[in-house]
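Summary for the steering committee. The consortium agreed at its last meeting that each partner would contribute one worked example illustrating the joint modelling workflow. Our contribution is presented below. We chose a case with several input lines so that the handling of multiple components could be demonstrated. No manual editing was applied between input and output; the record is shown as generated.
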Amino acid sequence: MRRLVLTVSGLMLSAAAAMPALADESSQQSVAPVPRFVEEAEAAGIAHSYDGAWEFFVGGGTAIFDCDGDRKPDLFLAGGKNPAQLFRNDSITAGPLKFSSLQTGLDDKQAANVLGAYPLDVNNDDILDLVLLRLGENLILEGKGACRFEAANRALAFDGGREWSTAFSATFEQDMNFPTLAFGNYVDRSAPGSPWGTCHDNFLFRPEKAADGSVRYPEAIRLSPGYCSLSMLFTDWNRSGEPALRISNDRQYYRGGEEQLWAVPAGRPPRPYRKADGWQHLTIWGMGIASIDLDVDGFPEYALTSMGDTKLQKLDVEADETLPVYQDIAFDLGVTAHRPYAGDDLKPSTGWHSEFQDVNNDGLWDLFIAKGNVEAMPDFAAYDPDNLLLGQWDGKFTETGDQAGIALNRRGRGAGLADLNADGLVDLVVVNRGGPVSLFRNVGKGTAEDPKQIGNWLAVDVRQPGKANSRAVGAKVSVKTGTRTVVKDVQVGAGHASGQLGFVHFGLGVAERASVRIKWPDGDWSHAYRVFANGHVIIERGAEKAKLWYPE
Amino acid sequence: MTRISLFINASLLALCLGAPGSHAGGSQSDLPPWSERAIVDDVDIKALAASGKDPIEVLQPIGERLFKAKFTTLDGAGRPEATQAIVPTKVRRRSQMSFQRLAGMDANACASCHNEPVNGGAGSFTVNVFVSEGFESADFDTLDPQFSNERNTNALQGAGLIELLAREMTADLHGQRQSVVAKARRSGQPEKIALETKGIAFGTLTAFADGTLDVSGLDGIDDDLTLRPFSQKGVFTSLRQFTINAMNSHHGIQASERFGADWTGTSDFDSDGFADEMSAGQISALVAFQATLAAPTRKADLPDIWQEAAAKGEDLFGKIGCTACHKTSLPLDSLVFHDPGPYDTAGTLRQGDMVTPLALDLGTLDWVKELPRDEKGRVLVPLFGDLKRHTIADAANDTFGNELLAQRFVARDVFITAELWGLGSTAPYGHRGDLTTLEEAVLAHGGQATESRNAYAALAEDDRQTVIAFLRSLEISE
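What follows is the complete predicted structure of the assembly.
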């Protein structure tokens, strides 16, 4: 036991000894424990690079999902001009990461020009399919099991178009048995004056049932005007039960554009929220959306990456909660991440993929942001390391990227945080432009040879077996430990050209048990499932108890 | 020359008292001899583990002092802003009272409740505690069982052996789980296993080819197959976990490994002006004291009439089925008590948090050497229990069904088999300590024990007396 005074001076001493160049908030030490990440792509068998000309300055995504049914997440990586690659996860539980390259099922033409990918079960056979965003024809690859895929555009009557597609999101609209798909497009290169002010429209595809009961996507509903979107997300921003489509747009090329929110009412045409609806005009170089309900009030907050400041949007407490009026709390919480936190470059950062996960399992959300110069933009930082902003108990976030070991000199684009070796510590995949993919294993507070756990954790897989939308896209997972509750949504979309479906990861801190409730996509809440910490559970709708899963 | 030797002396002193970086609570030399500070000694357990010294010798005396000590506000006793919950939880409203009989803090010394017949022992009804999760209505001030479970104080004698048994059984069950999952993966079919360890059955487990598990057939144990032997309900994993829980709940002393900055953002979570109130070394000392407490034995020098009655009674005890749950003994393979243990989770020091854990070899203790062994040389722990939870009340016999609140996922009428060793020294009986005679306690057994209970009731008066004579011969020696 020490008197409080001693502790405070101890903290100040360590803070002073700690961090480098920039004497602002980002140089404070994290009180929350900092996890260590070990980069091991090469050793794991992943040799991949996202590259290409101007069209591939953007994009660079990864889809993280289990394609062979062993519940370990596999990896699909977009390649730009390089062929896209598929890797099966062969990692030993709690061991070093190991992946094997597999055939994608794409021909040479299809495998090239891929900017991003999202996993989703399109045809309700409970095998995850892949939606590929391409420069040119977008592809829906039907999963056949055992990590085999087949291009299914024709079978689905889906016109992949010819646009430069950079964003995607999907949702199951009310009473629909198949997903509604939204594609975000970037610059229309063939329009006069391109690229300045020549953004393509975005498109919405609503499912139609064919005579044999299978799904078709014959009609592309135009979402006009498009403003060069780089991230989209179907999100229930107002607890209405009806997700709206948020679109983050790159002001680099639009003229008169802004961030967008489209209402997508069931059975009716989508329409954008306008100023009259309360939507405010916000222009950023929108690169990636990450959504999380930080204060668990039912209204998600949104992190929007950009060049310079990241925004963290919270529904304005003083405005009417039916109006989409947002305030930016990024500065208050310390997540502006507007400059590199390491190195001598004081120019503004360029942020891409963003994602909220609990990387140290202390029960507080953390924010990862992939960073990297667009190509050689002279007004923006050249050495621009990825951020790992750890949530602290005072509600703020503290930068720990270099302490965590992820501050590589690479240009991060798309990314994903998922537990790849089933040890309860969330690992990190970053697709880098013009450089190798980074594959980071989270070793907690240990080392590569001897990983050590930090907090307790829980991985939840949510399923609706026998129903449409068997992967429960749109569900909310609510985890209660003591008097605290954290929530996360099962979503398809957001990020930068990158998505994942699988176990939803939660840190539980020092709690040994948790009570998990699911709000199913149709709005019904489940009963509370009682689970113990440090394991994988599968919650199936209607089941009395959670199923436990033990990795090999 | 002088400077160097001073440095050497200073560092030797530091090693003895607790190296810098540990949560040293001020050295003895700082305090006047009349000081009311109770938490004074500390130990650097990482250095101790590396040193090769016998940890029992170092830790047990410190633990005993801490167990008997009366904690004061000078030690950081009191938790004005924190509830009794075992995960750091802030109060909704700050209470006017520091001590409060029901919601706590309700004591300032471990030994003030654990003292019958000796320190570390049980407690009478007078010192019952009121167990609440500490989340909702944490500051309850009523005896109403809607808000808390009233519990009698358990004896800790033999707890080290209990924890060792629990660890071995958990390892065994985890191994069985692993093998049935592997079997299902290989065969591609669902595979079922009847779980059993040390002769105790824990229900069935079904594994499927995809690695999933159906735990609905488990009996008397948690879904994660970790045997939690402590508390009346069998819901706490280890002495270490329980010690940290109790130090906060009863004394408002918050151990850093649970309530420290890593997990709460502050080193003074209860906001009483004291940071890091108890270190890992001090918790280890308390664990060492409890783990080395001599297991209960049988009364020596009984008059012949008692000896004969007890022998007959022990025989009947088995015949009427009591030993189905109150097993005479369970075998123990290893006597090395590792601290930290293998099954604690974040919030209690784990083996991964140290380079090597402390190894307390209970086999070096005289009282362990006197324990009976089986033909394989394993110590037979004479606990008269099975470390398994059972339903003990039903509509017909609801004496043990007085509680309204479930505890940590365990239903209100389910309790772990009470170890009967030491029974002769720890009246009154029952989880609430409200049964004054053994016969009342036996007749209160409902639920899964109904058949044995009825068999007892059907015995002739003389026979029943022999069972009482047997039970009364089990004691904690003073």
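Confidence is low (pLDDT under 50) at residues 1-26 of chain B. Chain B has 13 helices and 14 strands.
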